[in-house]
Structures are given as structure tokens and as C-alpha cells.
Amino acid sequence: MFSVLRDLGWFFRREKRRYSIGLILLIVVGVLELLPPRLLGNAIDEIVRGSITTGSLLKYIGAITVMMLIIYWITYVWMHKLFGGSNLVERLLRSRFMNHLMTMTPSFFEKNRTGDLMARATNDIRAVATTVGFGMLTLVDSTVYLSVVLLAMGFLVSWKLTLAAVLPLPLIAIAMIFYGKAIHDRYSLAQDAFGDMNDQVLESVSGIRVIRAYVQERLDEKRFADITEDVYRKNMAVARVDAFFEPTIRFCVGLSYIIALTYGIYLVFRNQITLGDLVSFNMYLGMIVWPMFAIGELINIMQRGGASLERIDETTNTRPDVADVASPVAVAQPTRIDFKDVTFRYPTSTIDNLSGVSFSLSQGQTLGVVGRTGSGKSTLLKQLLHEYPTGKGDIRIADVPIESIALDKLHSWMGYVPQEQILFSKSVRENIQFGYDKASDERIMQAITAAAFQNDLGTLSDGLDTLVGERGVSLSGGQKQRVSISRAFIANPEILILDDALSAVDARTEARIIDNIREERAGKTTLISTHRLSAVEHADLILVLDNGHIIERGTHQELLEMNGWYREQFDRQQVENNLSGE
């Protein structure tokens, strides 16, 4: 049950000063709270004996008042320390969790759903934070504070009465063990269901246009109702066990009160304790009600925190498929790119997605990659991003194996525009500046002009400051592509990768962008995959892929003379362009 505290030992060691102060003051408050009931019992005994005076009464009132003020101030300090630690660990865990996600490769996100990751980053981290805040309070109160109160009851009043009153306590311990295991198992299932619900919401919101286009609103509502019903049932299963905690403790506390009152009156009549002792004892008995409840809360919190920490650790303990090299080789510039007999297969694939691919590209040259859908164009380009473990063969940059280059250094050379454009829910300006956050307006406009987007600014409500909405929902497909290209241009990368990034623009706009690429990127390397052959006519080398194999290679003119797939596709596209008037 307490394994969650052991696993969070790194945090308690880091914040040992905070927790030492907080826990010591919490214990001090527990001891100080024992004094007012004892003072009240003494006052009652003086009243019964008739020896009470105005002076002594004022002395009792003053002592209790001062004690309450001291307790108030110390309570403020320990609460600030303990619950401040709760907020701190939440921030640390969330930052660590997010930083870990940033190191993960695509295969990780293929196996883990976004909704479940969100549930772990929110609900699960909050449950762990509760463990190091309220959980530490219940731990101290259910052990140290309970022990202090029991000792006070025994030494200051009567050991006989104390032993009789605590007879029901073992029942609480037995019940808590049973309830704790049930809470752990059911809470894990409930959190998994919450992750499923998150994922469903994300899918429905991002796919709302498709849902409406196919008139699937009612079906999606039913699907969501089913999944929320599942979340409800699993959370109710937790609540049913949770609901047993308080009645069980109240029942045991009630038994303690009955025993204490019955046996206490007997001891008063036998003159073994005074009436003031009995009043003090009952006040102490009232004080152990919370520690008894704290036992239940402690079991509940620790089990929830343990289950949540297991889910968080499951994610953060996952190692990336591509780890950074321990001793990277220093490479100043990517002067050359070499693929030597490269064969690659995705982790989820049963066949080779690239087979025996070889080519060389010098700095400043342009590579075109064409082929039918699914031929391996994107797979080839992604090899330079080193997102997956390299397969067979050798990929070298500046004659250094790609595995020996630091990932940050490798990615700093790259400007990548994928097939599916990812825009953030910010303004056009901020999306473009993502490539270079210190870019001036002049540089932004240069990048926009290079991407042939300048004419579209006038159609946007606030120009560069227009919010593009989530995933760029307020922009057309062609506009999103050109904003993404502007973002890559503004970074001025050594290697620009355009992965079918011109598919949503017309032929004239494409021609302008290609001309700008040739002019703006003189001396820098560019790789372009495309279905429209006009985008790679200028390339120094064009590769034609089919099922991961290179079936043709050469310049545009050389490929036309081969009269193969490239020539056939080029002639077809020329006819289509003539018919469409482009």
C-alpha cells in the first residue's frame, strides 16, 4: 500500500526541509491539542469540589485561548508546507511527463492513445499530488496523532478505560485491508475508462466535419453515451467501495463511545476516575474520531495514488526506439547525404517498406522522389529524421553514420513539411514564427512571399494576426500547406524536406513556389516527394519508387528518355493540364 511513498522517495529527499518542517509542526499541533481537554477536565473537577475561583477560571480561559492561537498559527505553516508540496510535485511530474513525451518516437504514439495520455497527465498526476499532500496528513494523523491521543488517554486519565475503548480498532484495520485492494483494482479500471472517453471526445471533435457529412451524429452520440456509461459504471464501482469506509469507521467509533461511556460511568462510581477525567476522556475520544477516519482516507488515497503512479510510470519508463547517442560525432555541416543499400521495415509492418535503396546527394542539390501511392516516398524521406531505428544498410551525413549524430544536431539541420499539415491554435504569425521565434515582420513576409501566400493575407480577417483555429480549421488545404512551407522557409534549414507538401495548390502556385525554392535555397539541400512531376523537373536527381524499390533514377530528361513509368505519368499529367487549362 505504501509503495507509492517509496516510489516518490526522490521527491521527499529533494524536499526534505519542507516535509521535515511540515510534519514536525503537524505533530506539535497534535500534542498541543491535548492540553485544552485536560485543562477543561481540571476546571470541571474544581467546580465539582467547589474550589473554583474567578482568578483560576480566567486563568483556564486565558490558557486555552492562547493555546488555540498558537495552534492556529502553527496549523497555517504546516498546511502551507504539506499542501504546497502537493502542488510542487504535480508541477514536477507534469513537466517530466511532457518532456518525456517530447522524446518519444512515432511508434510510441501509434501504441498509446492521445486520450489516455491526457488522462495520465491530468487525473493520474492529480491523484499522486493528493498522495504527497493530503496523504501525508492522513498518514501522520492515523499513526502519530492517534498514538499521542491514546497515550494521553492512558496516562492522563485511565489505561483501563483506554484499552476498553480501543477494542473496536482492529475491526477497522481488517476492513481497510479488504477495501484498499478493491479500491486499487477498481480505480485502475476507472482511469482506463476515463482515458477511453477522452480519446472518443478528441476523435469526435477533430472529425466533426466527416461525422456531419455522413449524417452520423446520432451514431456518434450513441457511441459516446455507451462509453460515458462505461465510465459511470466503473466509477460507481469505486464509489461503492469508497462508501463503505465512513460507515465502517462510524460504526467502530460508535462502539468505542458506548464502551467508554458505560465503563467510564462505572469507574466514576467506583471513584477510580473523576467526573472531569471522564469529560476529558470523552473529548479525547472525540479527537480520535478523525484519526480513525484518516485510516480509511489513508488507505483510499494511497491505493488511488499507487494505481495512478503505476500508470504514469508505465509511460515515463517507456524508452524511445531511437535513443540519443552517448558520444556523438561532431559534424559542422551536412555536406553530403548517402544512402547505401538501405532496407527498412516499420515495427508494425510484415514486409520491407524500403529495399536496397542507394543514392548520394551533395550539399546544394535537390532530390525528387516520385511513385505511385504507397511506394515508400514518405518512408524514404523520414529516414533522415531518424524517428525509427535504422534498418539494414548505411545512412550517412557528411560521411558520418546517422546513428552517431546527436538527434538535436540532426533535427537542427532539418526543415520538415509533412503531408498532413499541423498548425497550432494560434495566429498565422505565431504559426510561421514557430520555425524561428525571433523572426521580424520583414523576415516573415519574405517567407510568406517565398511560399506564395502573400495574396491570401488580404482574404484573412486580421491578416497575420488571424487565428487559424484548432489544426488550422479556418484555413483551406492550400493555405495550410503554404503556412507550413512559410514556417519551414523562415527557419532557413540546411536540409528542407517537402513530403507531398504541394498537393493542395494549383499548378501555377506550385510553379511559383518551386521557383522561389530554387532561388532562395541556392547552396542548400532540398528533398521533395510528390505525385505532380512538375514539382521535381528541376531536381538534380529523381528517384522513382515502387513497393520500396527504386525502379528508375536520373534527371527529368534522362527519365523521359527511358520511356518507363515516369514518362507514362508525365505524359498523362501533361494531357490533364492541357485539358484543365493550367
Automatic annotation (TrEMBL):
Residue span(s) of domain ABC transporter: 337-572
Domain ABC transmembrane type-1 residue range list: 21-304
SMART domains referenced in this protein's UniProt entry, alphabetically: AAA
Presence of keyword Phosphoprotein: no
Source organism superkingdom: Bacteria
Membrane topology: Multi-pass membrane protein
First and last residue of the signal peptide: none
Record-level Gene Ontology MF annotations: ABC-type oligopeptide transporter activity; ATP binding; ATP hydrolysis activity
Cited InterPro entries: AAA+_ATPase, ABC1_TM_dom, ABC1_TM_sf, ABC_transporter-like_ATP-bd, ABC_transporter-like_CS, P-loop_NTPase, Type_1_exporter
CDD domains, per database record: ABC_6TM_TmrB_like
Gene3D superfamilies assigned to the protein according to its UniProt record, in alphabetical order: ABC transporter type 1, transmembrane domain, P-loop containing nucleotide triphosphate hydrolases
Family annotation (Pfam families): ABC_membrane (PF00664), ABC_tran (PF00005)
Entry keyword set: ATP-binding, Cell membrane, Membrane, Nucleotide-binding, Transmembrane, Transmembrane helix, Transport
PROSITE patterns the record matches: ABC_TM1F, ABC_TRANSPORTER_1, ABC_TRANSPORTER_2
Keyword Nucleotide-binding set for record: yes
Subcellular location, record wording: Cell membrane
Any single Gene Ontology cellular-component annotation: plasma membrane
Transmembrane segments: 21-40, 60-79, 127-155, 161-179, 249-269, 281-301
The protein, known as: ATP-binding cassette, subfamily B
